[in-house]
Amino acid sequence: MKDATLGVLALIGICVLILVCGIGSWFWNLGTGVINRQVNPDAIVSNYEWYEQQFRDIQAVEGQIKDAQEATTRLMNLIGPKQENWTFDQRQELYRLESNLTGLKQSRRSMIQTYNARASMVTSNMWKNSSLPHQIQE
To answer: What is this structure's pTM?
Structure first.
């Protein structure tokens, strides 16, 4: 009976040891998998290029916003402030320009929020060019 009890305890001990080693190995593989995905050359280049491209895209949209604002101002200077004197076509053109401007502003806001969110992530922020801003103000 004593030998059987020791055998069962030994078997339970071996099972617990295998379980602990298996869970530990799983956590180790999980951690090294994350590290390997973030420090491999493809990930480094991809993250670096993403920040560069996103920053340049935001700058391009800001230029488009400036152009759209100038076009709206030019039209307003041309047609004057009195709405009752505006033709249907002038109203339509103003609405089109204002709609375009609103869409560009929304697009820029979304791009900035995505940039800022990624810049806050440790895993992708490690490879951002230090000359680029950490966060972009809206």
So the answer is: 0.68
- Residues (pLDDT < 70) of the chain are 1-11, 13-39, 125
Structure tokens at 30: 């999980």
| 122: its two tokens | 């440790």
Residue type, 65: I
> Is residue 77 located within the same domain as residue 107?
yes
Using an 8 Å Cβ cutoff, are 100 and 75 in contact? no
Q: Is 12 left (phi over 0), alpha (psi -120 to 50) or beta?
A: alpha
Tell me, yes or no, whether 46 and 35 share the same domain: no
Are residues 50 and 34 part of one domain?
Answer: no
| Residue whose pair of structure tokens reads 């305890």 in the numeric block | 9
Contact criterion met (CB below 8 Å) for 79 and 85? yes
Quick one: which H or E segment has residue 103? Answer: helix 88-120
pLDDT over 90 percentage in the chain: 52
Q: Are 94 and 72 in contact (CB under 8 A)?
A: yes
